[in-house]
């Protein structure tokens, strides 16, 4: 045997295994973490566990939204052949799936009768999966507040979306390792969280009965004036709890997919220009700052010019030959030129501060999605006419709920109370995550100014434009509004398009119930008193009697 | 995959059976008269080639994983190419020991051997079993080299063989895929690159100390042939660099010991036979490991003494018996 060549062979062995060892060092030591991570990632399966979604109730525990067991049908296309038979029972065409697939949905969330029928026939390759389906037993009632959920029970609108984190429960993922076909490996399971809990139940501040009155009144009003839409808010003045929040036209959340998406959203947290209802805020601010008293006389003007803009009244005022007008008369007759003088007396800074103290420009946090904070411009950005226009609710955008809160502070001696929609959030184990309580979030007025403002509001209903809101046996304070609609996106106002509104509370001597009625683009009649006054009266009267509030007026 | 569901010891039980059979093969080889063995070169080669050709007869051939490599008998199946490996070594040892310096003559010495090698390798490639063909060719090449063939001849054969393998790759879709996957496995990690990547992930996640014996994750269907051709990846994953290094050192010691037996053998035939056998172990070990760590394209070669497999275990133990036999004399 050739010794030299044998030596070369031995060197070959050394070289080859040497390369192998260098390569192993590279893979196993130098790049260890890279490969380890990759290997782990491909085996990881995160399995989300569906928790039972929480229910939604009204303040008295009457059920508004819950989940029921349903069956979903799926097939294993590898085993499934009899398309015709299944199509027959379901009454719908089934797409032809590739037989390489192992899973395909046929129909999600079918009713029990159909599921039972298919189970009895027993078609090979057809399987059922237990799922939960959201149902709203009261149908359209409070639909815009409740919202609805998607196919996988995820909140898509309303409280279902806004309170999703509470309703859906703690998210539970189980992390497992599995082989390429998805079979779990017998390795230890790691759970991200220890405790599994279902979604929490939510109790709204809404009272089903009051909600029902409000919706019925609103539906009638919107129909009577062929309006685009309407809104009624009823609030308990003492604690800020919203007793009714009605929006029309609405929809049935059980069949939301068949309804007009425009009707899904609750407009109570959207912005609008409040118009004349804001005059009360201006007058109260003036009283609080001391620039006016109840005895102050304002100049009687049909129009005046400020910063190149003419401020006019929306209707011809009968001055009765006087050159001045009282603050009370200004509100009773809703005189733009008079209220503007109060704003000018206060000046930009003070007026702005007061507006902010009423809560405008701040989020309330009702729990509804898409809540706006409103638009209150900084004084430095005001145009010259703004100080006048804002006094009667133009050049400023607020949400209906903010306006209610501001009026509520007048009813509460100047204490700004946060409006609430969630009464309590209750855990599975009956412990509370949250319980609503009266929450003072600021002071808008001195109690004297608030008292004076209440007097003025009473006069509007007694002698002024709010007469249609009178309730037998109760003293009522309130204010009408007939706001020109601001052009969307652009500047200026739309001709002949108005938002009619009425906001007020009763009984005036010891305020208990506040209500806002808002009608978007009423036809034929546009005036807040005519359009909204009767609905306000009916809703508030019904509510006061329902709550057994003692009459304070005869 | 031939996994019998429900018996986690299926492979272990079968392998113990093979080992027991292999022990008889070892004892038989240990006591074999080498002169008689030399004389039976042609019958052995003839029988193994006959069995090899029998694969192409539909009734006998058993297909697994797209290749017909097993002969099916009633109670066991048998891989003729494993036997051919040994037959070729025996044939070359016998021919080369007779040729002596005649090997330096290309036409009279090397060419006839090359023709026979070409035919045998060709049949095996046809199964298809590129891995076995490759190891037979490489082993034969090493035997020509040690027997004293001229460098210029060897170099030409190497070039010719290399380009033949390369060209063949382009004529077979699956070989081309393996070649492309080798060049860039990450280009198609779920397709052609899957096996290479899974193998690297197994080796890499082992780290320095490994996950511990039996703790491989990759062996659960991520790795192809995790009990056979890719067993080294599982070993790397479970025993880490330490374990892999130790195994390689053992193989090196084994190869050196074999080379020493070849060098110290009494007659040229025994010497060449021992060298052929040890070359075979070296070639198979090196190719198998290099496939697993992606140094060469994927080709199916078992890792001697480690991979699961009946014929290969028995033939390997028989070869070790022969080596011991030669060493003893």
Automatic annotation (TrEMBL), chain A:
Matching SUPFAM superfamilies, A to Z?
beta-lactamase/transpeptidase-like, Penicillin binding protein dimerisation domain
Predominant location of this chain?
membrane
Top-level taxon in the UniProt lineage: Bacteria
Q: Which residues form the Penicillin-binding protein transpeptidase domain?
A: 230-540
List the GO cellular component terms: plasma membrane
- Where would you find the membrane-spanning parts of this chain? 7-25
Alphabetic keyword roster: Membrane, Transmembrane, Transmembrane helix
Q: Which InterPro entries match?
A: Beta-lactam/transpept, Beta-lactam/transpept-like, PBP_dimer, PBP_dimer_sf, PCN-bd_Tpept
The protein here is known as Penicillin-binding protein transpeptidase domain-containing protein
Organism of provenance = candidate division WOR-1 bacterium RIFOXYB2_FULL_37_13
């Amino acid at each position: 045997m050739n010794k030299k060549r044998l030596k070369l062979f031995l060197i070959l062995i050394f070289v080859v295994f040497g390369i192998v060892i260098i390569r192993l060092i590279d893979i196993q030591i130098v790049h260890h973490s890279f490969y380890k991570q990759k290997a782990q990632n491909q085996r990881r399966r995160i399995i989300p566990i569906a928790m039972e979604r929480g229910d939604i109730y009204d303040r008295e525990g009457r059920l508004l939204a819950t989940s029921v067991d349903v069956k979903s049908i799926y097939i294993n296309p590898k085993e499934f052949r009899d398309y015709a038979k299944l199509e027959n029972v379901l009454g719908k065409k089934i797409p032809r799936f590739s037989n390489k697939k192992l899973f395909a949905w046929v129909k999600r969330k079918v009713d029990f009768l159909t599921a039972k029928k298919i189970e009895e026939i027993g078609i090979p390759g057809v399987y059922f999966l237990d799922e939960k389906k959201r149902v709203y037993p009261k149908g359209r009632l409070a639909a815009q507040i409740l919202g609805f959920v998607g196919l996988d029970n995820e909140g898509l609108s309303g409280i279902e979306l806004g309170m999703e984190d509470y309703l859906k429960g703690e998210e539970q993922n189980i992390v497992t390792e599995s082989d390429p076909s998805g079979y779990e490996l017998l390795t230890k399971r790691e759970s991200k969280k220890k405790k599994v809990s279902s979604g929490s139940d939510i109790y709204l501040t809404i009272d089903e009965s009051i909600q029902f009155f409000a919706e019925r009144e609103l539906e009638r009003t919107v129909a009577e004036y062929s309006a685009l839409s309407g809104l009624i808010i009823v609030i308990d003045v003492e604690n800020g709890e919203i007793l009714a929040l009605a929006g029309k036209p609405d929809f049935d959340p059980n069949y939301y997919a068949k309804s007009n998406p425009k009707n899904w959203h609750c407009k109570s947290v959207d912005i609008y220009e409040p118009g004349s209802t804001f005059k009360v805020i201006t007058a109260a601010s003036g009283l609080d700052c001391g620039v006016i008293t109840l005895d102050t006389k304002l100049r009687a003007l049909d129009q005046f010019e400020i910063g190149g803009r003419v401020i006019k009244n929306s209707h011809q005022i009968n001055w009765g030959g006087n050159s001045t007008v009282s603050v009370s008369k200004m509100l009773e007759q809703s005189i733009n030129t008079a209220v503007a003088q109060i704003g000018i007396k206060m000046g930009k800074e003070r007026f702005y501060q007061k507006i902010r103290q009423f809560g405008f420009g701040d989020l309330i946090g009702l729990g509804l999605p898409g809540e706006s904070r409103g638009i209150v411009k900084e004084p430095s950005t005001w145009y010259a006419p703004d100080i006048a226009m804002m006094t009667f609710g133009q050049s400023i955008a607020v949400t209906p709920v903010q306006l209610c809160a501001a009026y509520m502070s007048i009813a509460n001696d100047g204490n700004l109370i946060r409006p609430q929609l969630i009464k309590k959030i209750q855990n599975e184990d009956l412990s509370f995550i949250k319980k609503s309580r009266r929450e003072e979030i600021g002071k808008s007025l001195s109690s004297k100014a608030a008292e004076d403002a209440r007097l003025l509001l009473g006069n509007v209903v007694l002698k002024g434009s709010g007469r249609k809101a009178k309730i037998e046996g109760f003293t009522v304070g309130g204010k009408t509004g007939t706001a020109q609609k601001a052009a969307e996106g652009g500047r200026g106002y739309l001709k002949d398009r108005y938002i009619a509104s009425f906001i007020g509370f009763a009984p005036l001597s010891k305020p208990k119930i506040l209500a806002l009625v808002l009608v978007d683009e009423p036809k034929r009649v546009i005036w807040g008193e005519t359009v909204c006054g009767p609905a306000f009266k009916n809703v508030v009267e019904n509510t006061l009697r329902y709550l057994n509030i003692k009459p304070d007026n005869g | 995959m031939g996994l019998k569901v429900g018996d986690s010891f299926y492979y272990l039980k079968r392998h113990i059976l093979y080992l027991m059979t292999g022990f008889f093969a070892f004892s038989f080889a240990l006591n074999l008269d080498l002169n008689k063995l030399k004389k039976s070169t042609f019958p052995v080669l003839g029988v193994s080639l006959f069995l090899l050709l029998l694969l192409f007869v539909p009734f006998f051939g058993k297909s697994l994983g797209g290749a017909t490599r097993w002969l099916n008998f009633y109670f066991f199946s048998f891989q003729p190419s494993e036997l051919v490996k040994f037959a070729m070594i025996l044939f070359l040892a016998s021919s080369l020991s007779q040729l002596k310096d005649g090997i330096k003559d290309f036409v009279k010495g090397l060419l006839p051997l090359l023709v026979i090698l070409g035919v045998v390798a060709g049949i095996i490639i046809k199964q298809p079993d590129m891995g076995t063909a490759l190891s037979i060719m490489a082993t034969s090449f090493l035997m020509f080299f040690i027997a004293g063939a001229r460098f210029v001849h060897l170099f030409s054969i190497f070039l010719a063989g290399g380009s033949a393998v390369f060209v063949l790759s382009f004529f077979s879709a699956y070989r081309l895929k393996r070649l492309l996957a080798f060049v860039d496995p990450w280009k198609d990690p779920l397709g052609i690159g899957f096996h290479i990547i899974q193998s690297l992930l197994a080796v890499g996640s082992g780290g320095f100390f490994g996950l511990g014996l039996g703790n491989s994750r990759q062996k659960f269907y991520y790795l192809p042939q995790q009990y056979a051709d890719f067993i080294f990846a599982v070993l790397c994953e479970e025993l880490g660099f330490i374990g892999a290094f130790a195994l390689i050192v053992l193989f090196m010691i084994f190869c050196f010991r074999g080379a020493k037996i070849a060098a110290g053998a009494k007659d040229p035939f025994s010497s060449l036979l021992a060298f052929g056998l040890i070359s075979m172990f070296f070639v198979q070990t090196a190719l198998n490991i290099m496939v697993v760590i992606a140094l060469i394209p994927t080709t199916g070669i078992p890792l001697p003494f480690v991979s699961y497999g009946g014929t290969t275990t028995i033939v390997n133990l028989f070869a070790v018996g022969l080596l011991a036999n030669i060493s003893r004399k």
